[in-house]
Design a protein that fits this description.
two-stranded parallel sheet; 13% strand; single chain; Glycerol-3-phosphate (1)-acyltransferase; 219 residues; alpha/beta
Length: 219
């Protein structure tokens, strides 16, 4: 980690553990070195820093390209090596940057659902993460966040002090799908992208926290 990221990691770690009583499970499944994709459900703006604070290695987050135009915020995002994504261009430049970061041994956080949930429930996955998985040749660690919708979902303007948790699952390699992608037709390739995305969401859905935080009451 660089100094800027390390400082943010410490600040967010203290914040989440004191105000939101963060608990982390399975962080051992995140490799400390080498390329890896973290695939998580998305319930709140809190999710990226929460997941980042839950693992000791630096994570490359994604953010709208327009945010980089802000003098202060843009400088901070660049210091954290955040990947700019321009949705108007179809995300091609963002995908290229993601693959470059992975090729350099980085860790990328992606949300298969594509956007935050509106009702607190897991949403259908979009095929984009399947494309990244096929192109990257690296392990994929499923991640599930709990409590962030209750703490800072779309229906809140400011965060509320609710309990949150992060659980990491065992890495997936998608070796069979990658092998098929090398020779299959373009229509089948598009199907593979969606199948991978669906598999990831199914695995994420099966991740449950330990019994002591299985439920998050609205305190």
């Amino acid at each position: 980690m660089n100094l800027s990221y390390d400082t943010g990691w410490l600040v967010f770690g203290v914040l989440f553990r004191t105000l939101f009583r963060l608990r982390v499970y399975g962080s051992k499944w995140v490799p400390l070195t080498g390329p890896v994709v973290l695939a998580a459900n998305h319930a709140s703006y809190m999710d990226p820093p929460l997941i980042g604070a839950s693992t000791r290695r630096q994570i490359h987050f994604l953010a709208r390209a327009s945010l980089f135009r802000h003098p202060v915020l843009g400088t901070l995002l660049r210091s954290w090596d955040v990947v700019p994504v321009d949705r108007d261009s179809g995300g091609i430049a963002g995908l290229r940057t993601i693959l470059e970061r992975l090729a350099a041994g980085g860790a990328i956080l992606l949300f298969p659902e594509g956007t935050r949930t509106r009702d607190g429930q897991l949403q259908p996955a979009r095929s984009g993460i399947g494309l990244t998985v096929i192109k990257s040749e690296c392990p994929v660690v499923p991640v599930r966040v709990f409590g962030t919708y209750e703490a800072y979902g779309r229906h809140y303007r400011v965060p509320r002090p609710r309990r949150v948790a992060v659980k990491f699952g065992t890495p997936l390699d998608f070796a069979a799908e990658r092998a098929e992608a090398r020779t299959c037709s373009k229509p089948r390739l598009k199907e593979l992208y969606q199948e991978i995305a669906d598999q990831l969401m199914a695995v994420i859905a099966r991740l449950e926290p330990c019994e002591d935080v299985a439920r998050f009451p609205a305190e």
